[in-house]
Every structure is written in structure tokens, then in C-alpha cells.
TrEMBL record, chains A, B, C, D:
Keywords, in A-Z order: NAD, Oxidoreductase
Keyword Nucleotide-binding: no
One MF annotation (Gene Ontology) recorded for this entry: NAD binding
Range of residues in the leader sequence: none
Residues at the catalytic site: K168
Source organism, top-level taxon: Bacteria
Source species: Allomeiothermus silvanus (strain ATCC 700542 / DSM 9946 / NBRC 106475 / NCIMB 13440 / VI-R2) (Thermus silvanus)
Name of the featured protein: 6-phosphogluconate dehydrogenase NAD-binding protein
6-phosphogluconate dehydrogenase NADP-binding domain span: 5-159
Domain 3-hydroxyisobutyrate dehydrogenase-like NAD-binding, residue spans: 162-284
Length: 293, 293, 293, 293
């Protein structure tokens, strides 16, 4: 066990197992808005549930919360307690611009910040096989690496501050594009009498394949199981962040922007943000009068 | 060497190696519009270059030509010579409706037809690792299987007559969607200082990955090599066929239709149909003022 | 009263008043699928309700039916009875390609055909102030003019055979575009606290005004009266015809095609084709959580 | 001549004639970044060219500059000199959110602000027939009215602070939508042999007509005169502001957003922001291989 102390804030679906992996190797202080969860984590993983300001004792602080505003609020709350030289690793799927503002504030206290959103879902986190895409300075990235290696199979330093959030947002936008476009194609094929499972088998051995066609559609849509692993509302939020990245870049992106509109419409039409992101297939099904089964 | 005789029409980039594989196992009659190519094929593979009407002697006839109209013309020319019971396997990336008409005409002569477009490109064909998605009757499919196994690693019977062409068209539309959407995302990221190679590394270990992000962008776009393996004009044509499939199905497909428009615009803007399909990345680069390198 | 005899088929919302205007000046034979309507028309306007084949006695035949397929069916039924030299004026909002086929068939009998769809709605038709856009030969157009002047305020010969239907389709697509785009703009403005009636007043004195913003939104949407004057399903059909025109032209039209998809989605979401075309505003309202009032 | 003193900043294409109309009725102080223009205005209209801070002596200050950032800069520069009770009328086609920030700053000095963008172009301004859509408090609006009546034919108070800019942005987005959609429709019609001038004549007597089809296309596009009256770059900027309005409202707007992307692409493709906004028709023409003549 290393003698370095880490602090972990946010014990949700992703944070819980990740903090668990960290606790195996490092002295891990944990905090969660619902504190009972922090106490439960301590009992299960041997971490230490502490008041928020005590997190500042850690040399490396991790945040894994829903949105950048939450991170900013936490930074403000901890600012008076932070020690210079602390490294702040943010696993929130956040907004580049807001993250840069938070980083500036932290820098005034000598705290270093890295945006480090994750991919691989809860399963990846539990199996210590997450992918993390990091934005920030090279020295901070190298310092973070041994910690990230505790639960990540793929660690990539993609660019300067905000680049991690940006790449994550674009990745999730591509997930959304494939979810939507494949649904469009599949309902048309099913309407024409094509067997969807076999169509997917062909596509997945062809040039149009994607993680969506290989790993989401056959196991969740064709089977009609639609497990709830990633909320539609969160993916819609990521599409909004991607739009902000594109807006800041000033580059044309008609398809990504269009898909963002469709997911916003889908949220309204389905009537809930809590359904799984694959529910958009069911919206296309409803508009087409067929089921992809 | 089987005693079955096959006939192969169309010795282009895909047909040449495929007919070569067939010639190793079957007595193969070949014909090509530019007859010299048929003669060259005979010299290299031991096939037999014959006048068009002699192709009708084969028990199984293959067509591998650019468009369904070509197949229809060939069917009309061969009609007086065809024997009942002949199987016609069409490897053209064709149009379902036109193919059904051709199949009806052939059926009047007792000839069975399967639409069996391929994926995997020239490399796949050369290595006998193509994917073939077949539409038509089950009995005809089973009859075709041993021949297809000569050069296909993946053989899928996706549905009734026309279903093969339909699945191929949707597959290629998904290839196009990913090419376009990934280009949109990448130019925005590069504009914001993100390293494109590293961004792709992250995406390819994340939920938004696709064959395009894994096998096309790193080796062709980031390297700037842009090899010419699949003409933009052909992919634009496939998007048109996909639109016809959607039109016939009567299902909504705003994204697939939009991407079709963009590829048509891209053809115009780039000024050529002969450039490689990855050239659309260069169009987004021009519209954005950056290069994905 | 002229001594020329005209025949009028289709006494729906548009046909009824138009045939009535014709009956004031010409001996008018009428036929309708529900024959009782033809008899009622005769009683009200002094026209003559006759069996279908008797319509062929007229020198000028008018069709005012829902779709081109109906016109084609009628042409086939009347073909054995038609006299050479008859002029067929088609007020259906039809499909250019199918109309050209029908015209060819009629030409074999020496019957001249003009596609002459109308704009101006039922009110325009009742007040003899319709607009008619005509496709076909100049000589036929000139021959038709005196008849059209009976109920049209604006008569334009827009081009060769099919051009009338094409212009009508594009016109109705522009109506649809404005309905949709203005709804998008208005819900955003209302969400931000802007008074919709006053916003429309400003827009209608500005460069972004249209027939939709001037004559549809204030009187139907802001008032919430939504009178049913033109079915959503018919406008969606016209958008389909416009798409066919664009497809035949081979020109890019991303916005017109996109709006066509949205109207198809709107039909599904609203759950009826019979609601008024302005109902799309209510769909945007539902997606936005506000009302344009 | 009223004894009220007004100050006018920004003597560009719109400001020059408007300040001229004001000068006929009020003592008008003028300032322009290129001061020689202010001096020329004084010579022509009897206004008084003064240093910037002297503008603060006016009871009513007008700004007519390209973007909201310019207005904000001017407000900061004048802040130390402004008297409480001054009314600031902003004719810039601005951004609602930034304007609200500027208004807050001015309010600290007791200065009242109205966003009051104009429509009607240079011709409208010269002929004192502009349309002005105003956002802000009712009392301020009533106080502004007699001044606006000097050069406006249509004065509408559309909502609270920012509403004027928002309505202007939506109006200009609708102008852009009609410019683009009509171009799409017209190139398809011309490709099919339809006479564009006659098609427009029909459309302009039909339900799909707009200010664009009535007043821009016949006189500028069909004639090929393409006079430069409103830069493409400015209209693209307005579409960006409209996007911000939609973003702030959180309502779906797939068509308005798509048109914004196309205008951004058009700027790149045409290679200049300075061409007239109707140049987008020429881009559709290039993509279609026809001219709308």
C-alpha cells in the first residue's frame, strides 16, 4: 500500500467501484453528498469517510460527479482548505470552458487540475478497465498516471486543459450518432422484411460497423431487453457539451448538431430523461410502425 | 476441382480476384466488357474467356458490375441462351427494386436470382475474406453457399429478394455517416488544440468507436496518405440506393437522408467522383481551416 | 352562355365551387365518385350529373381529385370513349412523372393534357380568385385560358408538361418550411418572454415575413383557433412530391428534404393526417413546453 | 425643432440617414470612430460632431454599431460621464444576453436601456420607413416613441429587455431560411425546364410566398444583378445570435440551426463575408449546375 493519500468525491455508479480500486492501493478518504454512502464505502473497501474539508488533506483529489457546476461548487467549498501542490483529477464528463474556469480558481491556490472523463461504463469501472482521456499539463498527467492505472486499461493524454472533456463529448456524440443512424437504417430494413439480427451480423462484418452495432443493438435492442445502463438524459447532456465544443471551435458540424436536436426531441417525446439511451431506437420504431426484433 | 461450371461477368477490382478464387475450384468461364481482361484472367488463373452467350452454359452465373442497370442489360442479352435451373448470383451493390424486376425476368426462364453484394473491399476479396449479405430464397442461398465459401469469410442470408442490396446500402450509409460525423468532431477538436492521433486513440477505446475511427482515420487521414480504395462517387451512389430503400419502406430517416445530401454536395465541391471516399474529411477541413494531422 | 361543353370530375372542397363557376358560363357535365354529390351540384348550379363515360362528350375535361393515381385511373376508364382534340385540364396537386405517363396515354387518343394545380385554398376557389400554375404546350395553355379565367385571378404557364405540378409541389414545400421554421422561432421567443402577437407584428413589417407569418400565424395559431382548412396529410404528401421533383432534378436540397422528414414525423406524433397543417406548431409547442399565445 | 438633445453614435450605412432624420427635429450630437464622418454629417445635416464623452450630455443616446461588444465598449467609455435619467436606445442587431449585461451596467448609473434593432435596410432608413422592434420597460418605450417616429414607419414593443434583439435575430433567421429553401426549390425547377421568373410569379400568388420570393428573387437573382445591400457575413452573424436565443430558450430548432450551419459553410465556400446575402443562391446554383435565370 502506497503512503500517498487520495481523496475521492462522488460515490455514484462510476465513483463507487473506482474509489474501491484506489482504496486497495492508497489511503483513500471518501466523501459523498449522501454521507451514508461514504460510510458504506468505508465499510466495504477500507476507505475513510471524512467531512468534505478533510478531503483537502489528500495529495490527489478525485471528483466523479454529474456536471461541471458540481465540480465548481466543490472547488469553491474546498478552496480555503487546499494545500499548494495538490493534484485535482476530475472524472466528470464536463464542460471544457467551465472546467478551465474552475482550474484557474484552483491554480490560485497552487492546485493543479486535469480533466479526465471516462468511458467504458459501470462494467468497465468495476473491472478496472476504464478508458480515461486526459486534458492538462504533461507533468500533471505523468503524476496522475500511477493512480489512473489502478482502474484504467487505456490512459491517453489528448491535449491541453479541457481537451479531455472535449474528446469525451465528441466520443459520446459519435455514440449518439450511431445509435440514431443505425435505428433509422434498421427500421427501414425491418419494414422491408429483412431479419434484423442477420442484418446486424452482416453489418458487423462490414465497413459500417460500430460499437453500437456490435455491442449495443444485438444484445439490447434485438433482444428487447433494453437494460438501463446510461441515461438518455446524460447522453443528451453530453451532446450539448459537444455542441459547445463545436461552437467554441467555430467549425461547421451540421450532423452532430442535428443529432443533438433529435436527442432533445427524444427526451420530450419519450417523456423521461431516465430511460436508457438505447430508447431512441424505440422512438424511431414508433415513428415507423415496426419493431427491430 | 469440382465438375460444376460457373460463369463470371465483370473482372473489375473486386471481380478479378473473386473469379480467381472460383477458378481454383471450379471450371470458370469469364467475360468482361473489355475482353482483353477476360483473356488476361484466363492466362493468370486458368479460367476460360468466352463470348457472352457462352456464359449461359454455366450452372451458376456471377455478376460483379457497377450498377443494377448493367445487370439488367446482361440479363436481357443472355435471356435467349439461359437454361432453366441456372442460379444467378449478383455481387453488384445494386438497387433492390430494379433487382427484383431483373429477377422476375430471369424467373420466366426458370433462372433463380440472389442479390449478394459484398463488403470488405479489394483487400478482402483478394484474401478470400469478403462478407456477403444475401437476399432471396433459402434453397437458392444454400445452393450458393459452397461457391461463396470460396472467397467469403462471412456469409449471411439476410432476407427475401432485394434484402442483400438493402443491407449493403444501409451498411454503406453507416460508413458514410461515420466518415462525416467523425470528420466534424475531429476538426472541432483539432481547432481546440487536441492531438488528433491521441483523440482517436481515446475514442477507439470508448463507446463512440467505429470501423471508420479504428481503421480508416488513423491510417489514412491522420497520416495524410488518403489512398484511393473506394471512390467517393460509388459511396454517394450507395447513399442514393439507401435513400430508395428508406423511401420504399416509408420510414423517417432524417440523418441518413441528410448525409446523402452532404456527400452529393461533397462530390460537387471536391469536383470529382474519383477521389477516395475519405476525401470528405478534407472538405470538412477546408470548411474549418484546419487539418486533421 | 358559351356553347362549349365541359366535363368536371371531382366535386370535393375545391372542385365543387370551381365547377360551380364553370357552370355559370359553360354547359357543365359533372361526375363524382359519390354520385349523390354530382346530383346535388346539378341542383345547385345547373350543371348536369352524368355517368362517367358521358364526361367524354365534353371538349374540355377537368379533374380535381386527391392524387395522380386517381387521375390515371380515370384516364384509363375514359380512354375508350374520348374524342381526339379533347383538352384535359388536371387540377390535382399531382406528381410530374406520373402525370407525364398519363399524358402519354391520353395523347395516343389525341387528347391534350395540361397539369394545372391550384393555390388559394377553398376560399380562393369560392371567390373565383385561385392561382393556377400550368405545365404543358403553349397552344393547349392558350386554349385553356378562357376556362381558367372563370375562377382564377392568376394564371401562369410555368413550363413544359409536369412543370405545373412541380411548381405547386415546391410552393407547398415552402409553405411547410415557413410553418415549421416560424414555429421553431416563435416557441423560442415565447420561452424568453416575448409577446408572440407583437413579435409577429414586427416580423411582418420586416425581411423575414411570409404568407405564413402574415396570414396563418396571427389568425390561427396565436388565437388558438386552428381552423381545419388544409389537412396535414395532404401537405405531407405535397412534400413527398417535392422530394420526387428534387430527386428527378438530381440537385441538393438538404433543407426541403429535412422538412419533409419532420412533417412525416409530425403526422406520426400527432397521430392523425386529418388535422390542419398548422398543427405542426402544436408539435413544436409540445416539444418546447410553451404555447404560442 | 424640439429642445431635447440627442446623441448618435455610429454613422454607417444605417446610422447616417437615421441621424439625419433626427437632426431635422432635435439638436443632434454625433460621433463616429472615423471622426471625419461625424464632421461630414454635421455639414450635411446640421448635427454637431463632438468628442465621445460629450455625447453623454444628450438626454437620449442612440447606438447604431455592428455588434453588441461595440455597444458594451462604448457604454464603458461613457459610464463616468453619463447622467442619471438618460435613455439609451440601441439600434445594433445585438445579442440579448450581452445587451442585458450592458443594460445592468448602465442601470448602475441610472441610465435606461432599450434594445431596438431595425429592419427595412438602408432604403427603409433613408425613407424614414424602418421597422423597429423594441425590448425593455414600457415607460422607456413610450419615452422613446417620439424619437423613433422620426424615421420608423412601424414601431413595436415586443417584450422585456433583450426581446428586441431576439425578435430581430429570429426575423433574420427566417430571411435566411427562405433564401436558402427557395434557392433549393428553384434550382430543382430550373433543372427540370421550368421558367424561373414564371415559377416565382406563380409562387408569389400562392401560399409559399415570402418577402424573399416577392422582393429579392425576381429583382436580384433572376435578373442576375445581385446588388450588394446586406453582407452575407452579417446575416450569418444574425443566425448565430438566433442560435444563442434558441440555446437560452432550450427549445428544439433543427431547421433554424441547420440553416445557420449552411450559411457558415456558404461563407467558407464563397470565400468572402462581404458578398451580398443573396449569394447563397449562387452556391446552390454551383452545386446544381444550373443558374436561376
Amino acid at each position: 500500500m502506497s503512503d500517498q493519500k487520495v481523496g475521492f468525491i462522488g460515490l455514484g455508479a462510476m465513483g463507487w467501484p473506482i474509489a474501491g480500486h484506489l482504496a486497495k492501493r492508497f489511503e483513500t478518504l471518501v466523501w459523498n453528498r449522501t454521507f451514508a454512502k461514504a460510510e458504506a464505502h468505508a465499510r466495504e473497501f477500507g476507505s475513510r469517510a471524512v467531512p468534505l474539508e478533510k478531503i483537502a488533506e489528500a495529495e490527489v483529489i478525485f471528483t466523479c460527479v454529474p456536471v461541471s457546476q458540481d465540480v465548481d461548487d466543490l472547488a469553491r467549498a474546498l478552496l480555503p482548505h487546499l494545500h499548494p501542490g495538490t493534484l485535482w483529477i476530475d472524472h466528470t464528463s464536463g464542460e471544457p470552458e467551465q472546467a478551465k474556469q474552475t482550474a484557474l480558481k484552483l491554480a490560485e491556490q497552487g492546485v493543479r487540475y486535469l480533466d479526465a472523463p471516462l468511458s467504458g461504463g459501470v462494467v468497465g469501472a468495476e473491472n478496472a478497465r476504464s478508458t480515461v482521456m486526459v486534458g492538462g499539463e504533461a507533468a500533471d498527467f505523468e503524476r496522475a498516471r500511477p493512480f489512473l492505472e489502478t482502474y484504467c486499461a487505456k490512459i491517453v493524454h489528448v491535449g491541453p486543459l479541457g481537451a479531455g472533456h472535449a474528446v469525451k463529448a465528441v466520443n459520446n456524440a459519435l455514440l449518439a450518432v450511431n445509435l440514431w443512424a443505425l435505428s433509422e437504417g434498421m427500421v427501414a430494413l425491418v419494414k422491408q422484411g429483412v431479419n434484423p439480427g442477420l442484418a446486424l451480423e452482416a453489418i458487423n462484418a462490414s465497413s459500417g460497423r460500430s460499437n453500437v452495432s456490435e455491442n449495443l443493438f444485438p444484445s439490447r435492442v434485438v433482444t428487447r431487453s433494453f437494460p438501463n445502463t446510461f441515461a438518455l438524459g446524460l447522453l443528451a447532456k453530453d451532446l450539448g457539451i459537444c455542441t459547445d465544443v463545436i461552437e467554441a471551435a467555430g467549425t461547421p458540424a451540421p450532423v452532430l448538431r442535428q443529432v443533438r436536436e433529435f436527442f432533445a426531441i427524444a427526451k420530450r417525446e419519450i417523456g423521461s430523461s431516465e430511460v436508457d439511451h438505447t430508447a431512441v431506437a424505440q422512438l424511431l420504431e414508433r415513428w415507423s410502425g415496426v419493431e427491430i426484433r
